[in-house]
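User: Can you recover a sequence for this backbone? Please restate the input before giving your answer.

Assistant: Of course. Working from this structure:
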């Protein structure tokens, strides 16, 4: 499967109607472009119009085909399902920003402690030099 292809697969509706009697309608929305297609399978491969697409959403509905019923009525549309492109950027920001902030905090605390320790050692060293004992 190419990077621009998306494999959509959905569950067959439960009930007494055999799977071979169903036809599916899929509505796609890619960024601001929408289109509809029909299939007899519960799986479809689509090609995105652009590799830079930020979002691809789809809805599915079904009805009985002409071989099982004279006039089928379309079901309600499924809940919209969306795939978001470049999710790695979001994940990277989600983990990288806190990691950088914590690392920066640890670095500042370490530097501060080292600075205070150095000053304390200087003070002790100067005090020992002045002491006549």
């Amino acid at each position: 499967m190419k990077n621009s292809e998306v494999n959509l697969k959905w569950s067959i509706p439960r009930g007494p109607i055999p799977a071979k009697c169903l036809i599916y309608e899929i509505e796609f929305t890619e960024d601001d472009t929408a289109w509809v297609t029909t299939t007899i399978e519960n799986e479809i491969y689509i090609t995105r119009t652009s590799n830079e697409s930020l979002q691809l959403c789809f809805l599915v509905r079904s009805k009985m085909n002409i071989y099982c019923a004279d006039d089928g009525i379309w079901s309600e549309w499924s809940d919209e399902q969306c795939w978001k492109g470049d999710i790695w950027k979001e994940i990277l920001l989600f983990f990288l920003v806190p990691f950088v902030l914590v690392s920066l905090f640890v670095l500042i605390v370490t530097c501060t402690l080292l600075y205070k320790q150095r000053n304390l050692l200087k003070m002790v060293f100067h005090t020992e030099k002045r002491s006549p004992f």
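That completes the design. The mean pLDDT is 79.
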